[in-house]
Write a structure and sequence with these properties.
The chain has 13 helices and six strands. The protein has about 400 residues and is of the alpha+beta class. It folds into two domains: about 210 residues, no CATH class; about 170 residues, Alpha-Beta Plaits.
Length: about 400
């Protein structure tokens, strides 16, 4: 969850898509992860099945043809395995476009695998019916194994199945004997059953994933402001912290406290206070509106804005804009010296590394917020880690 405009309860699939949580995209990621976990055994299984076929047909087919076909099968299986491992290492930090491209690439690798098996009915098709029946049974087993591995992606299974089933059916029909015609019909029927089964499994998986994502989104969303809650913020901070370490990019954090909010609630009542918090949340989402930014309500009247790939100047600009726009909104607050609602902001920026701590980063920002409140409120205070390493003033007035 790294989007600023995280929707709140009740969360729908439309809300998830608007906040960047795409069920189809998440399903693609999880199906690729499943493929990665099953790929080593799958590659070994293809090679083992190929060796089994060569051994069974050794006396009825030309050995050189069998060896060449098996070598091609092994090379393709190895290439597919290495491609899957390469994609898996880069999957978590990839964009949607990259993941879709890699999915097509892995689909192409699967197609190469099944074309190799489909070619077997033309390259090593035995003369006698018994060996032909054996080869057809092996091909049906390959289709079934692919159905288990590709059950999360119906399109992939179709591309996997057809290059095997179609050549085998054609060869059986060309042979024209009664038993071979029956085998052709059975293979068509069997493939159809597999299509139906894979389609049902895909639907079940997609519905389960949709419900799980909805529940996860609900559990990470503040019901009042529709921003992320503290749990969503903590999880996003951890994820974005690790991402910043990998990319060596800076990260900005604002912790924002509504000034004298207890007095506001005492004077106007809690319903009015809830309305004021909603307005503050909407303002934060409008200002920190990049798809990578995260706005959260982390306490009663305390908010946070997490900004990946943002330096000190960019973070300061966001903080100043928040105070300026809130000043323009002029939300009445008669118990405040200024007569309208204001906020104090603690600001921190760092470039995380393996030795740094997200918890310490948060504590430093909290301390900066405390200093902003102690210095008269409606202020922006920089974390001491920033002021110790630069000549910038520790505070910037945010009065409007």
């Amino acid at each position: 969850m790294t989007d600023a405009n995280i929707k709140g309860g009740p969360v729908t699939e439309v809300d998830m898509e608007e906040s960047g949580i795409d069920v189809q995209h998440q399903m693609l990621v999880e199906s690729l992860m499943f493929l990665y976990r099953s790929m080593p055994s799958s590659a070994l299984g293809h090679v083992f099945a190929g060796v089994f076929v060569v051994y069974a047909l050794w006396e009825v087919m030309a050995p050189n043809t069998l060896i060449i076909w098996l070598a091609v099968l092994a090379v393709v299986a190895s290439f597919r395995l290495m491609a899957t491992l390469w994609v898996e290492k880069r999957l978590h930090d990839a964009s949607v476009e990259q993941i879709e491209q890699w999915a097509f690439f892995l689909l192409f690798c699967a197609l190469l695998q099944t074309v190799t098996w489909g070619a077997s009915v033309f390259l090593i098709w035995p003369e006698d019916f018994a060996h032909r029946a054996f080869l057809v049974v092996v091909l049906a087993g390959i289709i079934a194994a692919g159905g288990l591995i590709l059950a999360l992606h119906r399109r992939s299974f179709a591309i996997y199945c057809l290059p095997i089933a179609i050549p085998a059916v054609i060869q059986l029909l060309i042979s024209g004997t009664r038993l071979e015609l029956i085998l052709a019909v059975l293979l068509v029927f069997y493939s159809g059953i597999m299509f139906v089964s894979v389609n049902r499994l895909t639907n079940v998986f997609q519905e389960g994933l949709r419900i799980r994502l909805l529940i996860q989104t609900e559990s990470r969303t503040d019901a009042l402001t529709t921003l992320a809650n503290r749990r969503g913020f903590d999880e996003s901070l951890h994820d974005l912290w690790q991402q910043a370490i990998r990319t060596n990019q800076s990260m900005g954090l604002l912790i924002i406290d509504v000034d004298h909010f207890k007095l506001y609630n005492d004077y106007y009542g809690h319903p009015k206070g809830d309305i004021a918090l909603k307005k503050v949340g909407e303002l934060l989402s409008h200002i920190a509106s990049r798809s990578t930014d995260l706005c959260a309500r982390i306490g009663g009247e305390e908010f946070a804005v997490l900004m990946p790939a943002t330096d000190l100047e960019g973070s300061r600009q966001v903080a100043e804009t928040i105070q300026t726009e809130l000043g323009k909104a002029r939300i009445p607050h008669r118990e405040s010296d200024r007569g309208f609602l204001t906020v104090s902001i603690g600001l921190n920026v760092t470039t995380p590394d393996r030795q740094s701590s997200a918890d310490l980063f948060m504590m430093e920002t909290d301390q900066a917020l405390y200093e902003a409140k102690e210095s008269g409120r409606n202020k922006i205070s920089l974390a001491r880690s920033i002021t110790n390493s630069s000549s910038r003033p520790s505070e910037a007035s945010g009065e409007t």
